[in-house]
């Protein structure tokens, strides 16, 4: 990115949380080199052919025909209710028995996390996050002035021993207990790790013991190609400590900007008060119809095939192209793999060369709340391009890594 002089004359008018972050990368921490010919393994974008255009067109026509002006009015018509029912039905399939009062529709999972931040966080409040974690979620929490502390994670997800040690150390030092733990328990972004059942139980026990809430961002849970899913944290929670975030960005399309929060009624009540202006009820009506017509499951089945094929193509290419000493995760679903290159490679420094060779990715460092971690690691997404492009992209990554080791 080119450095540009920042306009400073409005600085005194910004809120403190904004003023203290002027010049910080924020969302631009995800910026990628401008390399139009490189294979983009950078972002968690669904592949374009996966979008259910015909089904959405049909749903738009139907809601306009059946509901007329109601669908365009404040609050929408009956199809908004149908979407609530559709989502609660999907949640029930995952073992979560929530009521309408425990569900809040949002404009996506990111907006849901923003509502959590607005409802619970004062500047300076402590939030525990996985180390590494999704950089844009870290940016949302940072926007609310949160102090972020990373807790280690391995191939079984967040490490409850590390979590307990962090909580104990804070308590011993007389520091306040964190209000929130933000976790991505299913096919974590960026590592692809899934939290084991046993660890889920321990995380919930610690939440109870130390009195914090667990924000479980489940953007990928329905995208499992093989193996068994552990029960979602919300299905194991009997004390109302889990705030569950969901989205259809990965199972229908990000452009429809629709997600939700499932949580204890008392928490939903306050979070809905913070969601000024409401949500897009026209889109919600279209999705209500989409669910009713049975498109959701049908599209999901097709997606699972498309993503599994891509995951397999990427794993196969990694085995053939990466230098000896490289390691990577092998997730059973989701969008991402986490690669660690041999000693001596710096993934951030290697990015311009990789882009020249024909691939872009996100360097590992950008997923950590603290500096200096993840320098040998990088996140690649297998969701966005075709299996042939994945092969070409990983071959380019292999060339860049070999050259960096010289
Ligand atoms: C863990 C996680 N949460 C949230 C999002 C974004 O969700 P939405 O598009 O619903 O805002 C993503 C997408 O990249 C993600 O990986």
Automatic annotation (TrEMBL):
Q: Which co-factors does it depend on?
A: pyridoxal 5'-phosphate
Molecular-function annotations in GO: transaminase activity
Q: Name one Pfam family in it.
A: Aminotran_1_2
Q: Which InterPro entries match?
A: Aminotransferase_I/II_large, Class-I_PLP-dep_aminotransf, PyrdxlP-dep_Trfase, PyrdxlP-dep_Trfase_major, PyrdxlP-dep_Trfase_small
Q: Which UniProt keywords apply?
A: Aminotransferase, Pyridoxal phosphate, Transferase
Q: Locate the Aminotransferase class I/classII large domain: which residues?
A: 57-397
Read off the SUPFAM superfamilies from this record.
PLP-dependent transferases
Show which residues constitute the signal peptide: none
Superkingdom of this protein's organism: Archaea
> Could you say which protein family the record assigns here?
Belongs to the class-I pyridoxal-phosphate-dependent aminotransferase family.
Assembly and partners are described as: Homodimer.
State the PANTHER family in the record: AMINOTRANSFERASE (PTHR42790), KYNURENINE_ALPHA-AMINOADIPATE AMINOTRANSFERASE, MITOCHONDRIAL (PTHR42790:SF19)
Q: What is this protein called?
A: PLP-dependent aminotransferase family protein
Specify the species.
Answer: Halolamina litorea
């Amino acid at each position: 990115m080119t450095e540009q002089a920042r306009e400073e004359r409005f600085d005194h008018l910004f809120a403190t949380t904004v003023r203290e972050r002027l010049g910080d990368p924020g969302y631009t921490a995800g910026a990628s080199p401008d390399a139009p010919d490189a294979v983009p393994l950078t972002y968690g974008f669904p592949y374009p052919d996966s979008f259910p255009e015909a089904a959405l067109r049909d749903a738009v026509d139907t809601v306009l025909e059946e509901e007329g002006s109601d669908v365009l009015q404040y609050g929408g018509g009956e199809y908004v209710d149908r979407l609530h029912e559709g989502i609660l039905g999907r949640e029930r399939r995952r073992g979560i028995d929530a009521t309408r009062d425990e569900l809040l529709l949002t404009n996506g999972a990111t907006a849901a996390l923003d509502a959590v931040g607005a409802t619970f966080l004062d500047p300076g409040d402590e939030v525990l996050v996985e180390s590494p974690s999704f950089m844009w979620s870290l940016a949302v929490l940072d926007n609310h002035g949160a102090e972020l502390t990373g807790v280690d994670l391995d191939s079984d997800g967040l490490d409850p021993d590390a979590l307990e040690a962090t909580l104990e150390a804070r308590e011993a030092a007389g520091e306040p207990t964190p209000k929130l733990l933000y976790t991505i328990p299913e096919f974590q972004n960026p590592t692809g790790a899934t939290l084991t059942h046993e660890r889920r139980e321990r995380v919930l026990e610690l939440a109870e013991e130390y009195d914090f809430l667990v924000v479980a961002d489940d953007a990928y849970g329905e995208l499992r190609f093989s193996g068994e899913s552990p029960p979602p944290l919300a299905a194991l929670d009997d004390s109302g400590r889990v705030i569950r975030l969901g989205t259809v960005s990965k199972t229908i399309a990000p452009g429809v900007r629709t997600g939700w929060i499932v949580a204890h009624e008392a928490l939903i009540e306050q979070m809905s008060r913070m969601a000024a202006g409401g949500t897009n009820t026209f889109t919600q009506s279209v999705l209500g119809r989409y669910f009713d017509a049975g498109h959701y499951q049908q599209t999901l089945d097709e997606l699972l095939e498309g993503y599994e094929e891509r995951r397999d193509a990427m794993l196969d290419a990694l085995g053939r192209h990466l230098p000896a000493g490289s390691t990577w995760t092998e997730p059973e679903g989701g969008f991402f793999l986490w690669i660690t290159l041999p000693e001596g490679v710096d993934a951030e420094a290697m990015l311009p060369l990789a882009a020249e060779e024909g691939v872009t990715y996100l360097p590992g460092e950008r997923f950590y709340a603290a500096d200096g971690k993840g320098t040998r690691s990088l996140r690649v997404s297998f969701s966005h391009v075709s299996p042939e492009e994945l092969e070409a992209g990983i071959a380019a990554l292999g060339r860049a890594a070999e050259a960096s080791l010289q």
